[in-house]
Write a structure and sequence with these properties.
single chain; alpha/beta; 10-stranded parallel sheet; 17% helix; 38% strand; disordered N terminus
Amino acid sequence: MKLNACLILTFLLLLASCTIDFDAAEFIKGNSYAQEFLLQYPNAGIKLVRLSIQQTSDMIDEISEDCGLEMEVKEYYRITINDSESGLRLVIYIDAVTQETSCLVKKQSIIPGELVPEEISVSDLPEPSGKPRIDLYIMSLCPYAREMMKSISSVVTLLDQYVEFSINYIAEVREDDMIWSLNGQNEIDQDMIQLCAKKYDPANFFGLFYCQFRSVSTIPTNWISCAEQEGIDVHTIEACYEDGEGEQLLRASIRETENRGVKSSPTLYINGVLYNDEVTYFHLLDAVCDVIEEEPEGCQGGFRTCLDSETQRVGKVKGKVTYLDEVYYDTCLNDDKVKEVYCKDGKPLYVYISCGDYYKCVDGACVADWFCRDSDPDMDKYNKGTCKIYYGGEVKEILEDECQDSLFLRERYCEEDSSSVQTSVIRCFAGCDDGVCLPEECIDSDNGFDYHKKGRVTYLGQASEDYCRTDIGLVEYYCSGDRIGGGQYYLCSNEGKVCRNGACVDAASTTTTQSSTTSSITPTTSTTTTTGAGFAISSCGRVLRESGTYTLTKDVSFSTRICIETTGKDITIDCQHHTISGIFNQNPDPIQQGIYINGTYYYDGDNIEIKNCHINNVMYGIYSRHARNSIFNDNTITNGLEGIFLDVFSDSVDVTNNVISDNTRWGINCFGADNVDIENNQVSNNDGGIYAGEDSVFIGNNIIDNNDEGILAINSNPTITSNTITNNNVGIKCFAGEQPQRSGNACSGNTKACEGCTGEPACDVDNC
């Protein structure tokens, strides 16, 4: 017999080697399970095939079911050793690249046969066995009952021939003869289906029970797919359920439950005695073994046989194996894989089971996890992306990129651990439409390298102007593709000219002094570079590069983009309570900035101070970008779009003692700023009061009054303390469950004092 098996093996493998580049003979010789199977079943047939990626993809559900774990789609060699006499087969899947075993399982083949009815008389039935009884009473959708069933199924499976197991359901037949159950009609239907399965296929009853509870939301309709998976005859159960037999079984079950006086799920009796101990596998096994007269092997030797708390290796339940008084638990290899222990031939073994995309290994089991997929993971603001949130493989939520308004995009993206959706608000300098930023272009006012005209290059909200580095040379900015090119140095002296105000001019023309303008509106071409400390400012169009204190000597107005711009460090602007006026309410289309801090993000700080300024009717009163260490003190900013806007990389900013009111969007917008202190300000009658868009924002001792949202926390957890927050639509609002530190705030007259924030104190109408 042994020689015969070897001959069959050699013949089949030689035949297979004509088309498959794999030494299967050597593999089987080195595999103890294959050798053991062939020795036990020497007439078994052997088949070797190579599955392509497409074939594997088409069969992946079948392969995963065969193996009892989720298999990856890849090329495999599959060896099937089938014994037709016993109906047993050994199936081995081998990774075609690494030639390592991915799955090895012994299965019972399905052998078609014909059922022959026979007459059985009462005298032929065996006498009652006198076996101890395990009587379980449950509500079928009760989660506690489900947990007890895990332990009971293992005990009953181990000691099946020594005990009798019955299950009854907790429900009620009411006066109108209708069946009522605590969890509704789904539970009633589930009870009937399970009773039908228990009657007609008791061997697979537990398998059906577990399979259905892997997808609780689809109970009871998932019973058909689960019955097919467990090898239960669907037509038999369907006939039992639909023809009224299931209802009669349930009514009888309810009577048995009522006769015993059971009302709590789960309730367990072992041999007629109420069981009140722990429901772990070993506690139940102890209790059942105690009432069996002749102790079977499974109860002997201090559990020295290999015992598994699970009925099958599914990876979704933490199990344990006991062997030689040692306990081995299922454990997580990493977030993606569980090390599943199980018993085979009386000894403990283990296999790695992949949890897959929508599950995560936690405490030895693959549990359903929140999983995020982003169609544009690179946060491409020029393409509309979609984030989908999955749980257990099902789509639970879909969030798309959307425009917050005409200038800002709400870009959705997945958190780094792929568990949730986050939102980043991105500035669209050319406008936002249908969830995307419109493309920007680089614009050069002097159209390239015109050394005789002062040019200004703008792109992505950033501007660079041509300027004189020395009396004989200038730095010329230009567009390079779709961005600003670096400044090119050019010697005006090569043409016999000198540099004045960012352009090469004849030396003779510099002796002519331009008369000052009497217009209150600054012309679009009159931008002046100011140098030196202690310089007086009497008009708009100023670019401040050198360190020093600059004082505004009178009220000024402008219709261009910027009134005063800083590009240097250690600069103080003191408006001496004069007013800077724009045209926002007459023409809101052009972007206007009263004072624009064009920072360079110096390592030791730009050190810009702006004080005593009245800024009115300007889109952005004070606009800071890439600036560190700034102070905005004693300013009044009114009737614009936003009072103070802190753009990206604005760091270490103090905003104190300002009055900011009647702006159509935010009073103070900390869009891209870290380490901001906002103290002792009055922020009133704006659409929004204070916007905290980054962490490390302190908001204290402010009066925040008559805004739509007093304070908004988005993607941040600011500290909000000792503020007076009154008469707003919402006092403090959190966008997505942020947890700001809130204490000592006085709130009154708000429609809602607090909304959406987590942590203490809890949000309610009167508490912020």
